[in-house]
Design a protein that fits this description.
α10 crosses α12. It is built from 22 helices and 19 strands. The strands form 5 sheets. A 7-stranded mixed beta sheet has the order 1-9-5-6-4-2-3. Strands 10-19-18-17-14-13 form a 6-stranded parallel beta sheet. By secondary structure, the protein is an alpha/beta fold. The two termini are 37 Å apart.
Length: 633
């Protein structure tokens, strides 16, 4: 009976697939999304109009200069550089960049915290803008790109301005453009943008190769400069080998610190202070438990666990005092310096010391557990089904963890995931829900989202699209899903855009439908796919859409060879996923010569594109699997 029902549902899906109907597409187009929490996040407002009576550039020249503070931040300097770069790309004219003490003109682009901005009388709220928000404001003849002190706002304001002024569009490291212009009019602007998520990071192999790409996708990273490497830092701060004579400071044979030990805090604080002096630009300190599932069980720690309800309370009490003491030291010695501290909620410290009150609201188990203003919580959200909204029945326990900690801290950092670490060649279905999830997180005090994916090599499952969608929806969760996907497909695949959109819609539809025909945890990090999850007729449908994409670009082969080659490679990169699944699970459908040709083609393009791994661990590699396939012919 079970097999019969599955067969009937497979048949229904096959018919749906054949006529090009996508469940995901329909869902995302519906207007009921207006009631979802993304409508409560961020600020995206402003007025822009063209003033044709004035120009920023005409007749091959401009009276405007880009004016920086005399001591610009890294972000302000980048903003000026990007403005000059893309303006020159459009007009062939290089706007001069000057520090304001050298500025002698009358027309300018003011970048960041200049005295010109101070003198303008323009009103803005740094707390509202946060680390990423910006205002772009014009007066009678000048343009002001405004962000908070030390933040990224002025840089992101420049990108927003360039969209109007020179038609700037950015999709990926190898796909962006501006219009070619002989004149640029003046734009009257009063724009305020505050993103859904203030700090945004995509932590993958490809994103790590190109800082320009990350910047232009409006990613900030977790901080400008972290004082310690990684997040499991307790033994970096207090190395066991250095303090062996203080064995009482450690638990479990040196695996962890004992956060109730006498004398530990003084040395802990002293070491962090020394690190901050050593690294004067560091603005983030992770305070993280070591990466093993244990905790101190001494009498003092056990008593605190009993009193406050969780292991995390022991560490939180300690860290709150540490941060308070360092804040006092900073105020005396470095009054203009801000340092963000993060406590890792992970394994034994994942649960927050809170309880629900009679109104169903999470409250601290004690007032002393409320975090210092600059002590945030870093949550490793490994237990989520990323194909579903966080407020789904399946994910509610994980969302509870976030919301519990939000009762203690106004800065939550999320370490989340964007791949199945066992199957890089099978598309991870996080795009089914991440738009809504960013908004849900934003309403739970989430300051930063770190999307972590494949670190090993080039990815093959719509990696460029996924990065574009994640970065855009983290910026503005209100964007229309389908319109954003179609915009990317048209820009990135051009003549093949409709066919690749058809493939992506079919893929999304199947991944949305898959749980309805067989129970499974498809949206988890290490789910083990099998042949029934990717039946051949489904792969045949994917391949048919890909073949349409190749056909769409075929005329370019003789008319625009370079463009053809670029688009062919982009399509082929995505086809590798389908070829892999054919060879992994459905070789029996192909003749020996067909299989050999598929293996040869797969190997050639994996080598060309640098696709070397099929799962997280370093060995075996893709090429070991290819060898096994070939030996079995």
């Amino acid at each position: 009976m079970r097999k019969s029902n599955i067969f009937k549902k497979f048949t229904v899906f096959a018919l749906t697939f054949a006529i090009g109907v996508g469940c995901i597409s329909c869902k995302k187009d519906e207007e009921e999304t207006a009631t979802k929490p993304q409508d409560e996040t961020g600020i995206h407002q402003g007025e822009v109009s063209v003033d044709e009576s004035r120009t920023l550039f005409s007749g091959g020249t401009s009276n405007y200069q880009i004016v920086l503070p005399d001591k610009p931040t890294t972000q302000e300097a980048s903003a000026a550089s990007e403005l000059e770069h893309f303006f020159r790309m459009s007009t062939s004219y290089s706007l001069p960049i000057v520090n304001e003490s050298s500025f002698k003109g009358t027309q300018y682009f003011s970048v960041g915290q200049t005295e010109l901005l101070d003198e303008s009388g323009i009103d803005y709220d740094e707390d509202e803008l946060g680390v990423s928000g910006f205002k772009t404001v014009t007066d009678d003849s000048n343009v002001y790109f405004i962000g908070s002190t030390g933040g990224y706002g002025s840089l992101f304001a420049v990108y927003n301005f360039l969209e109007y002024a020179v038609g700037y569009e950015y999709y990926a490291a190898d796909e962006y453009w501006v219009d070619t212009l002989t004149s640029v009019p003046f734009y009257n602007m009063d724009v305020t943008e505050v993103p859904t998520i203030q700090r945004r990071q995509i932590d993958t192999y490809v994103m790590g190769q190109d800082s320009d790409n990350a910047r232009r996708l409006r990613l900030t990273g977790m901080s400008n400069n972290s004082a310690y490497t990684g997040v499991h830092t307790e033994l970096q701060i207090m190395p066991y080998d250095k303090y062996r004579e203080h064995s009482d400071w450690y638990s479990n044979g040196g695996l962890h610190l004992c956060y109730s030990a006498d004398g530990l805090m003084d040395e802990f604080v002293k070491n962090i202070q020394a690190k901050l002096v050593e690294e004067p630009t560091a603005d983030l300190v992770n305070l993280g438990l070591s990466d093993n599932n244990s905790f101190c069980g001494c009498d003092k720690c056990s008593a605190k666990i009993s009193k406050y309800g969780t292991e995390s309370a022991v560490m939180l009490l300690f860290m709150n005092d540490v941060v308070a003491r360092i804040n006092e030291w900073l105020e005396i010695n470095y009054p203009d310096r801000y340092v963000q501290f993060l406590l890792l909620a992970y394994q034994k410290t994942v649960d927050a010391p809170v309880s629900k009150n009679e109104d169903g609201v999470w409250e601290p188990n004690a007032t002393e557990l409320i975090c210092e203003d600059n002590l945030g919580i870093y949550i490793a959200d490994a237990g989520v089904d990323y194909s579903q909204r966080l407020d789904s029945t399946r994910n509610q326990p994980r969302l509870d963890i976030v919301q519990k900690w939000a009762a203690l801290s106004n800065k939550i950092y999320i370490y989340t995931y964007a791949t199945n670490f066992s199957y890089f060649f099978c598309s991870f279905p996080n795009y089914l829900a991440f738009q809504d999830n960013y908004a849900i997180w934003a309403n739970s005090n989430v300051e930063c989202v770190d999307e972590t994916g494949n670190h090993n090599c080039q990815s093959v499952t719509f990696d460029a699209l996924r990065n574009y969608l994640m970065s855009n929806f983290m910026w503005n969760s209100k964007l229309n899903y389908n319109a954003t996907v179609k915009k990317f497909m048209t820009a990135y695949y051009k003549e093949a855009g409709d066919a690749m959109y058809e493939y992506f819609t079919a893929l999304s539809t199947w991944q949305k439908y898959l749980p309805e025909i067989e129970s499974g945890d498809y949206g988890y990090l290490y789910y083990q796919y099998r042949s029934q999850h990717w039946p051949k007729y489904i792969l045949d449908g994917f391949q048919a859409a890909i073949d349409k994409a190749y056909a769409a670009i075929e005329p370019l082969k003789t008319t625009e060879g370079a463009k053809y080659e670029k688009l062919f490679n982009r399509i082929k990169l995505e086809e590798l996923s389908v070829t892999y699944m054919y060879l992994m699970w459905h070789q029996g459908y192909f003749k020996r010569a067909e299989k050999a040709a598929m293996i040869d083609d797969f190997e050639r393009y994996c080598t060309k594109f640098g696709v070397t791994h099929e799962f997280e661990t370093g060995s075996p590699t893709v090429f070991d699997t290819i060898t096994a396939w070939r030996s079995a012919l």
